[in-house]
Design a protein that fits this description.
The structure is a homodimer of 187-residue chains. In chain A, 48% of the residues lie in helices and 21% in strands. By secondary structure, chain A is an alpha+beta fold. Chain A has a domain of 117 residues: Jelly Rolls (Sandwich). In chain A, the strands form two sheets. Chain A has a four-stranded antiparallel sheet with strand order 1-8-3-6. Chain A has a four-stranded antiparallel sheet with strand order 2-7-4-5. The longest helix of chain A has 27 residues. The termini of chain A are far apart. Chains A and B meet through strand 5, helix 3 and helix 5 of A and strand 5, helix 3 and helix 5 of B. Chain A binds a DNA duplex (30 and 30 nucleotides) through helix 9. Chains A, B: Pfam families: cNMP_binding. Chains A, B: This is Crp/Fnr family transcriptional regulator. Chains A, B: InterPro entries: cNMP-bd_dom, cNMP-bd_dom_sf, RmlC-like_jellyroll, WH-like_DNA-bd_sf.
Chain lengths: 187, 187
DNA sequence: TATTCTTTGTGATGTTTGTCACACCATGAT
DNA sequence: ATCATGGTGTGACAAACATCACAAAGAATA
């Protein structure tokens, strides 16, 4: 089960068996069913999640109760309401399953203990944070430079599997267009 | 001159004089005039920059030679084409001065030496990377939830000084709307 | 002073996208 | 089998926004 995690981490740093045992001791495994919430807006955020299998969405609900998808997370992705997680404040976003999902859970104490106990892990999280920053900036750029059709095509090219796994309504919400407009793009 | 840097870093970690001397030794100061380029698209990216004074913009130029502003950076901000900087690849974006600007320059070797030589600095950069990720995600959210007027008002509320320092054409490019549309929002 | 460049506003018009309404189909629950 | 539910496509119309064109005011420069 946690082989995924080791393989994932070792793409960036190498670990001895003892070191991985130490890493592993900070995580607990949890399972969630489709539609279940890992994080609920307004509630405290106890964990950062590493997705073992399944698919989840990070969403923000606006004043008109309209839902906007800030991010998807699938196998080998880390996700949380990071702002709330690091600051210890209440969630402004929710994290919900699109499929039955298995995750590894890491608390903030666990995160800090990992970083201070095994310095390589701080380096690992630094790399991950930088990658997250760069990816988010690329998405900003797609809003600046591209219309709905182009953003849709870029998304499909980059993550073809989403097309199979996620209803188009959800893709529309991620792309920032209405369901109807997305439906009309195919032609 | 580098007092800014020390104060900036000590908002997150504390440093002895010796430690700060070590940090300081990794930076060189450079001055650029308005319109000058710190990074040119297609060229190697030698540095990450810490802005001492002035104002710069991170831009991407699309196929139609239209310029899009990915980020502004003013006093106490870090900026670069991070993807190219960390990977050692050629820049896909440019970094250009909107005002006469003084920056501290850090090479990739310097960055790595800083992180390995003084562990607190790795922690510092981790915090900064996380903050960058969260800020970028907030901007994505503004594209998903808000129209041009709302994004404009949010920007002015958050960074009122930009309104004084930057022509509206540039603000429009940052917000992802045309100059004309922005001009008509005021009413 | 004369002149060029930058910045900004604004009208006219077309394109893109959102919203509302309705229909159809598949799926799973009772 | 029947019923609800969620996902999808599409027509009609309205709103938001882009583009093109032109004008005017201010800043920079010769």
């Amino acid at each position: 089960m946690q082989a995924n995690l080791r393989e994932h981490i070792e793409k960036i740093i190498s670990l001895t068996d003892d070191e991985f045992a130490f890493v592993q001791s900070h995580f607990i495994t949890k399972q969630f069913s489709r539609h279940e919430f890992l994080i609920t807006s307004g509630q405290p955020v106890k964990h950062t999640y590493f997705v073992i299998s399944g698919l989840i969405k990070l969403i923000h609900t606006d004043d008109n109760a309209k839902e906007h998808i800030v991010a998807f997370a699938m196998e080998d992705w880390w996700e949380s309401d990071f702002q709330a997680f690091y600051k210890g404040t209440k969630a402004t976003m929710s994290l919900q399953c699109l499929e039955d999902t298995t995750v590894l859970c890491l608390t903030l104490d666990g995160y800090n203990s990992l970083c201070s106990g095994l310095n390589k892990m701080e380096y690992f999280f630094l790399k991950k944070a930088n990658a997250g920053h760069i990816a988010a900036q690329q998405r900003i750029l797609s809003f600046l430079t591209s219309n709905a059709r182009e953003r849709y095509e870029m998304l499909l090219k980059r993550y073809p599997s989403l097309f199979q796994r996620v209803p188009k309504t959800q893709l529309a919400s991620y792309l920032g267009v209405s369901r109807e407009t997305l439906s009309r793009l195919s032609t």
